[in-house]
Amino acid sequence: MTQSQLRRNDGGAHPQEQLHRSAFWRLKERLQFTGWLQYLLTAIASAPFLVVAGIGWLIGSWRLQLFWLPLMIGLVLLVIAIFDVITVKWDIRPREPIPGRHDNLGTFDLIRARRSCRSFQTRNLTPEHRAELDQAVEQWVRQDRLIGSGPIRLEYVAARLTVWPTVGAHEFLVAIAPRSYDRLAILDIGRSLQHVVLRATRMGVATCWIGPGADQASVITHLGDRFDPGRDHVICVCAIGYRSRFEPLAIRVMERIQHRRMPLSSLFFADPQFEDPLPVDAAPFASFGRCYEVCQWSPSSFNSQTTRCAAITTSIGTETDVVRFDFAAATKSRFYAPVAVGIWCANWETGCAGLGLSGHFAVLTAEQRNTPDAPVLPRYDVSWVVDNKSPTTDRGSAAGV
After folding, report:
1. Nearest to residue 201, comparing CAs of 102, 118, 267, 84?
2. What are the structural domains, with CATH classification, of the chain?
3. DSSP code of residue 305
4. What single-letter DSSP state applies at residue 167?
5. How far is 43 from 46, CA to CA, in rounded Å?
6. What is the pLDDT of residue 61?
7. In angstroms, rounded to a whole number, what is the distance separating the alpha carbons of residues 69 and 222?
8. With contact defined as beta carbons under 8 Å apart, do 121 and 82 qualify?
9. CA atoms of 316 and 339, how far apart (whole Å)
10. CA 215, CA 38: separation in Å to the nearest integer?
11. Cα–Cα nearest to 284, from 322, 312, 318, 314
């Protein structure tokens, strides 16, 4: 569906206004997918300062800050834009080393160390890293590891796909689900690919989840006969490679903005209606230590953090135990919300494994969850059911992993 169709379905606007929006949108997409927008943003940011400096010069205030301060800021931004084009867009820069492995990091520190990479080196993955990555893909897309029953695939593509805002990426994993809508298959995409991403992080290989920023036509073209339009649907892509120190200023600023996260009290709840914040530092919830934190820092489309979780407990006498955690999507998104839930699932089970906590994923009915009057949103997707209690689940051991 095109953007103009979406607007008409939402009530629409005057046809001429739609045309203006559409033309602006096409220009933005052209600059975005030809790889110039991230450089032009910095150059455009310099323009107001240079204009103010010009006005200051015309009115004879060249000795005052009205001239010199905006002139210096404008020139610095313009020089940075030119430097970014030369070093990143045109790839005129020193050859950078291959990053080292992170085998020394514990489970939680590894998950927190993983950051989206926006600028990649031009070198290819080494044969050793490629083989280890293929092994991880094979491990996490097998049917016996999936929550649902729909077939999913992670296809490797070596090409400069049309993506935004990542620059320099030329190796990707393309996540493919069935053409007919299967929410659990999409959730499995998020879970399986995030496990591969964590393996890549351990290897020192950088990654970047790309959803709306990928041009579907470009992706499908490079998949070739590995994509059947009658059966397959591209859910997202993940850029893989080695992180570069050379990164456009506009992207650095975007990363700063998108790095913020919502508090745990807005993500984890103590009731199935998702109303009461979960006291994560109190028993029995403290047993799960940093599992909450690594979900909080999970990647999501536009950093929208659309996943919520409710802890369900049971009481026997004076003792209260956690029986399961229900994961749900807080928006009606049919694709990126379940992908985000799947990413949470991967981080959660990885954290629980690091703590020695045993559990499994299950999709429960409303009757099984005893929540027939659950709200439409957040929308329930899957539960992590506790298998048994482990002697290592005290607060001290949880904090020490």
Report:
1. 102
2. 3-89 (no CATH), 107-250 (3.40.109.10), 260-400 (3.40.109.10)
3. -
4. B
5. 5
6. 59
7. 48
8. no
9. 36
10. 16
11. 322
Buried b (16+ CB within 10 A) or exposed e, 181-219: ebbbbbbbbbbbbbbbbbbbbbbebbbbbbbebbbeebb
User: Running DSSP on this structure, what letter comes out for residue 330?
Assistant: S
Residue 202's φ and ψ, nearest 5 degrees, are -60, -35
Query: Strand 307-316's sheet: what is its strand order?
Result: 268-269, 307-316, 319-329, 379-388, 358-362
Amino acid at site 361: F
C-alpha–C-alpha distance, residues 93 and 340, integer Å? 36
Q: What tens digit of pLDDT does each residue of 108-129 get?
A: 999 999 999 999 999 999 999 9
Do the beta carbons of residue 350 and residue 358 sit within 8 Å? no
pTM higher than 0.90 for the full model? no
pLDDT in tens, 339-391: 999 999 999 999 999 999 999 999 999 889 987 676 789 999 999 999 975 44
314: left (phi over 0), alpha (psi -120 to 50) or beta: beta
Q: Are 353 and 107 in contact (CB under 8 A)?
A: yes
Contacts of 77 (CB under 8 A, 6+ apart): 42, 43, 45, 46, 49, 249
CA dihedral 191, 293, 204, 86 (to 10 degrees): 100
Q: Helix, strand, or coil here: 387?
A: strand
Residue 268 neighbours by CB distance under 10 Å = 23
Q: Distance (Å, rounded) from C-alpha 165 to C-alpha 250? A: 10
C-alpha dihedral (272, 277, 283, 287), degrees to nearest 10:
80
The CB-side HSE value for 217 (13 A sphere, CA atoms) comes to 1
Query: How many whole angstroms separate alpha carbon 26 and alpha carbon 175?
Result: 26
Which H/E stretch holds residue 200? helix 183-203
Is 190:300 a contact under the CB 8 Å cutoff?
Answer: no
